[in-house]
Structures are given as structure tokens and as C-alpha cells.
Amino acid sequence: MGASQGADGPAGLPRLALLGLAALLCCSALPRFALSTEYNYTEALDGSYFFYEAQQAGPLPTWNRAARWNGGWRDASFLNDGSDIGKNLTGGWFDAGDHMKFQLPFGWSASTLAWSMVEFPAAYGPPSGSLFQTVRRNLLFAADYIVRSHVNASDVPGENVYAAQIGDTDTDHARWCRPEQCPEIQGPYRPTWVADRTRPGADIVGEAVASLVGVASVLKMENPADPAIPLLMTHARQLYAFAKAFPGTWEIPAGDYPYRYGTHKWQDDMLWAAAWMCRAGEGASYCADAVSFWNVGSNMGIGWCPGMDWDNAFNQASVMMLGMADRFSASFLTTVRTRLDYNLNLWHVSTVCTQPPPNTDSNGDGLVDDGHICYSPKGFAHESTWGTARITANAAALKLAYSKYLPTNPEDAKRQRCWARKQMRLMLGDWGRSFVVGFGCNPPVRPHHSSTMCDRDYSITCDGNTAADPRPNPSVLRGALVGGPRKDDYYVDDRMDYILNEVAIDYNAGFTVALAGLLQLSASTPDWDAYCGTAPTPITCPWACSSCDSGTQPGSNLASQRSNCYSCVNARGVSKSWQCHACVGNATYVASQGQHCLSCVSAGADAWACQSYCTDLSSDIAVLPSCTSCVADPAVRSAGPWRCSVCMAPSVLAKGAAAVEACMSCVRSLKGPYACAVSV
Ligand SMILES: *[C@@H]1O[C@H](CO)[C@@H](O)[C@H](O)[C@H]1NC(C)=O
Ligand SMILES: *[C@@H]1O[C@H](CO)[C@@H](O)[C@H](O)[C@H]1NC(C)=O
Ligand SMILES: *[C@@H]1O[C@H](CO)[C@@H](O)[C@H](O)[C@H]1NC(C)=O
Ligand SMILES: *[C@@H]1O[C@H](CO)[C@@H](O)[C@H](O)[C@H]1NC(C)=O
To answer: Could you identify the atom of ligand 2 that is nearest to the CA of residue 58?
Structure first.
């Protein structure tokens, strides 16, 4: 079980979730309106893959939706990865908001995404459809990196070498940067560390095998003769034989700081690998291996956990095996089912997190300790503080998948499904806001994530000051699940609070499975409220936030400004939210005008001043921030913010951004504005 804890990096850039086992809410007291629909699970599912595209390292494929040429902010990065061992190890996904490439959570995430596809294929539509193709592209991108990470591929187990980690955590976490610029800022030290016969890593390699077979299985759904399948399977067989012959967990060589605490095991990863090989029809010996890895794991701590995560694939492998009644004996599958019943039932307790039972509050914070499952006052299930939403989403994924294999027990299937739906709905909005960036009502706008928190213009410095600036991240990391609220339902959308606002590739993996599960099951459950027997749960979208939506409809000029508008509402409070709505109320505005107006209002200025003296006079985002600092300046506000508009006259604008700034600065010192305009 990944009972490890996070640690803070030197500059407050922790890992971000690998180290972890994994409010200002303006609106909670407001009138709410209820919609009797489910959340748009398709939109959330598609968003999740957008997030993985934003995490891509190396040269970006043309289809990357976060790439600059597709309207995003990303470009090629870390083009020298692997050069220290003479290999091209560009590609893969950055682990979290940082730029490390760790193969264990990477392999677990990729294989879990593949699992979502084979377990819930109907969620993804036909292979010709766009969602299926989105996933196929992303999974092939991951598999390509795994194949290239297999730097020495051999049928002789002891000759295999697999790249286990790229990057040094201390170096990477020392300074914030855009991935495209990190080597210039952090320095060139970017070591490649490998697993080989002298430094085995059956945990990492097992996850690589699971991913390769998983991706091959997805390819097979579209075209059983896909030429990539034999290539992926050859690597999978070689890596499997290597890990089996050289078991053990991979340990980082001295030099990097230890990226984990506590213990982890390799048996669950090899179980996951063997189960995939067995499922893919690779032969009885893999199925027999799966049984023996299951038996070993079932007697270890990993076999007695309520969930799944990057450090424990025992339960998900167990569920997948239930789908292979033709490969395993009925008595073995009964044993597996009994264990899953036990493990998944661990979630069904009545403990309230804020009322710790005896001996469950060792640090005296009034909350149930990590490792004991409890429910927040709003009903959100928590098992751990760090990345709590991810852990709950992982449990929802397991329960939804498990529910497929309970045909003779419809009551239990319902119990599992309704639990999962309730918890996923809390994450998507029922809690009172969304915890998914760019999705739903009042989503987080300040995830702890380098590339989105920097300005899109690469010439603008991005560093610790940028991180500390409370503004929303200029780019929207659509689809990313953040850490989530605390056990007492406290949450703040603050990127420096990385426990609540971290994002990571493993955070979205189980979440994706759960979304696919809800989507597939929705076809047979047209009325979830009736099925679950609960009163309709209103989607609570505070009007102050939802009023932002009308001016930011998809396809409109200001579509990209919805989350900035929510953020503005949070910054100014409900009573002043109409100021924010005004900024998205002029349909002729281009995005930079809406963006500027919202940040101007967020800074405390009045919308009419921001508009008539700034945005209505220019759409040039290079000069507009100078105008905000002028109209929001308390002295200027009392003297009359019209003074700032003098610096937005065509004659000053024609002289460029530096002249505008000089003029505004002159006005802020309350000199005569016309003299200021002439003197620059
Ligand atoms: C749900 O989202 C998908 C993808 O964004 C979109 O195509 C679809 O129209 C949405 N459905 C509804 C009912 O809004
Ligand atoms: C490294 O591999 C990637 C992916 O295959 C490719 O796009 C890139 O051009 C390669 N880089 C070099 C230097 O060969
Ligand atoms: C790969 O294998 C070759 C030959 O077996 C060996 O010379 C080389 O050092 C190996 N590469 C690595 C990175 O270990
Ligand atoms: C809308 O914005 C334009 C500038 O883009 C401005 O000229 C116009 O006056 C604005 N309209 C209203 C109604 O404020």
C-alpha cells in the first residue's frame, strides 16, 4: 500500500503526488437552482485526456490540443532526455506540476487508462468516433515512450535495461519554470536512471508490461491486425521475463532525494502484468503466474487495502480477473470475489471525519487520522489527506468495475454503483463547486502546475513570484482533478496549497475509469435517481458563478474566460459579482479584453472604469495590465480613474507598451494626466 507521505521540495514545489500516497467559496449561502440532469461525463472524460496531452514531454505531436499551434500554450520541451546514456528518451508524461518522468506512476496511469477502455468500451463509442481516437492517440504516445525506455531489449532476461527515472528531483524542484525553458533555468543536470539485472525493478517493469499489453488490447479493439500490436507484445514478453527473473522493487541510486517513504511492493505490479498477459491470450503460464502472484499478494498488506493507486494494483487486477471466467477456475474466482467484497466494504463505515472515534486523532487536529476511512460533513469519503479526491475516485473506479461482475447480486451491484456515483458527483460539483479544472461550476483556477501558471508569452519571466501571484493560472489545465477538500470540508483554490491543489498523472487515472464506468452504465440506468433511491441531488451552481456562463458560451469570443469570471466572483464576493458579469457582457470583446477586464475587477477596480478607460480603448494585452494598475490604484480611484484613459489615447498607444506604462506611472503619482501623456 502506498502509505507514503509527501514532502515539500526546496522551493515549495513538492511532488507533487508521487510523494504522497498517494474558502473563500463565495457562493455557499446563495440561492441555488437544481438541474435534474447528470453531469456531462463525456465532457469530463474528454477533458481528462486533454490533461494528459498537456503533460506531454518531448516533441509534441501535431494533434496535441494543448500545443500552441492548436490554441494552447505548450511546445516541445526536454529534447535531450536520455542523451546521457546515448538514447532518445524524449516523450512520456510529466509526473505532476513538475517535470520529472517517473516510470512507476506513469506505467500505472497508462495501464489504468487502458483498463478503462477494455472494462467500459461503450463509454468511448465506436472506434471511428472522436473520443475513441483521442484515447488511442494518447495511449500510443505513452506506449511509444515505454518502448523507447526499453533501452536494451533482449530475449535473454539479464540483458534487458529499462529507463526507470529521468530527472533529478532536487534539481527539478529547486526552481519553477516552463517545461520549454527548464533546462536553461534549472541547469542541464537531467540524469537517466535505469533498472537492469544489477538494479532490478519488477514494480516499474511490471507496470510497463501492463501498459504495453493494455495499449495493444485497445488497438485490437479497432483493428486486430494493427502492425503496432506485435511490436508492443514483443517488448511486453521481454520485459515480463526480465522482471520475473530479476524481482524486487527499484531503488533510486544515491544522489537523488528519496522519492518515497514507507514501503512498496512489486508483487501487485507483476500480478497486474500477468493478468493482462493472460487476458491477451498469451498462454496458460501467464494465467498461472497471475494466480500465484495473487496468492502471494493476498497474504501481504497490499491484499488488504480498500482501494488502488500507483503503488498498489492488487484490487484492480482482481477485478480484471473476474472478467476472465474462461481463464481461471471458479473456486479461485470465488476467493478473489470474497476478498474484493471485504476490501471494498471497508468504505462502508459511518465515521464522521470531524468526530474522530477514540484513538483515531493522534495529532489532535480534530479530524480522523489518515488510513481510517471517514465521511466529511458534506458526505465526501476520505481515506487520506493528500490527494484525497484521487483516492476516492480510485475507489469509485473499482466499485463500478466490480459491479459488472455481480450479476447474481443486483442489490450489491446497486450499492457499489450508487456509492461511486455519489462520490463522483461530489467531485464534479455536488460538494458546492467543481474540483476538476475547466469543468462545471466554479472550478479550481489555480492548480499547482508550472506550465499553466506561467504567462503564455514565453518572454515573460516565470518563477517563484509568478507562483506566489494569486491570479488564476493564465492557461486552463482542462480536465485535471485537483487534490480536493480537507476532511472538514475546507478548501481553498490556492496554488501554493499543494495538498489541496496538486494535479498529477495518477490523480486522473482512476478518475477516468470511474467516469467511463458512469457513462457506460448510464445507458442501462437512464434514471440514476430512481435507481439509487435517493432524492434528486441538486447540482448546486451558485447563480453568481453560473451567471458568468451566459457570456462565455462555447464558441463565443469569451469562451476561454469562464473560469476567470468564476475566479473574479470569488475575488470580489457575491455582492459585487455583477461587476464580473459585466466584463463578459460585451459580445464584441475579444478574449484579451475580457481577460483584462476580469483581472482588473478582481484587483478591486470597478468594471465601468476597467472597461471605459482600458479595455474599450485597446485589445492589446501588452498594455492593458498597466491600465489596471492605474484604475485600481486607490489614489487614482479617488482622484478620478478617467485620468488613466489619457494614457490609452492613440498617440500614446502608438509609442508602445513602455510608453503606456511610463504614462500610467506618472498618472498614478497624481501629476496632470495630459502632461504625463505628452512627456512619454
Ligand atoms: C456533453 O459534452 C460533450 C463533449 O464536450 C458534448 O459534445 C455534448 O454536447 C455535451 N452534452 C450535453 C447534453 O450538453
Ligand atoms: C526522438 O524521438 C521522437 C519520437 O519518436 C522523435 O520525434 C524525435 O525526432 C527524436 N529525436 C531525435 C533527436 O532523434
Ligand atoms: C546494452 O547491452 C549492450 C550489449 O549487451 C551493452 O554493451 C550495453 O552496455 C547495454 N546498455 C546499457 C545502457 O546498459
Ligand atoms: C463593447 O466593447 C467595444 C470595444 O470592443 C466598445 O467600443 C463598446 O462601446 C462596448 N459596448 C458596450 C455596450 O459597452
So the answer is: 3
